[in-house]
Amino acid sequence: MNNSNTKKEILLWSIAFPGFGQLLNGKLVKGSLFILLEFLVNMNGNINIVIIASFYWDIKSAVNLANYQWLMFYPCIYVFAIWDAYRDAGGGTAPFTFLPFVLAAYLGTIGVIFSPTFAIGHHVLGPIWAPILSMCMGVGIGLIIQQYLNKNYKN
């Protein structure tokens, strides 16, 4: 890893696009694999089109355009790529650091599954907003569990 790259910088680049963090860490093959997976799942899941419809709050179109067989892979690949880049940059050395990432991936996938019906009030969130909200909840729950375990089970 280049000394000018910080753990946070690599984390943020990986959030922007899976594989970029690995490239910054000098893991060219792994980074290229994540970029290829991102492209493959994105294209087959119609993710960019679904994002545009979701940002225009045309959730019905977003639900109809989404290929859920591919979309279900995205949260796990996305979050794993973020965690992997962060870990390779020297982050995640404290016990249970993986928990927020794992719970974000799990809950993000559950958010995809229930996205056609997941609603707040009368507004269905759809295949972009429901997984994002679920992933944020996963990070929050994971941080709480991580703090609890680190506080109560020091090894």
UniProtKB/TrEMBL annotation:
| Membrane-spanning residues | 33-56, 68-86, 98-122, 128-149
Keywords of the record, alphabetical order, are: Membrane, Transmembrane, Transmembrane helix
What name does the UniProt record give this protein? Answer: Uncharacterized protein
Q: Please name the source species.
A: Sporomusa acidovorans (strain ATCC 49682 / DSM 3132 / Mol)
Classification of source organism: Bacteria, Bacillati, Bacillota, Negativicutes, Selenomonadales
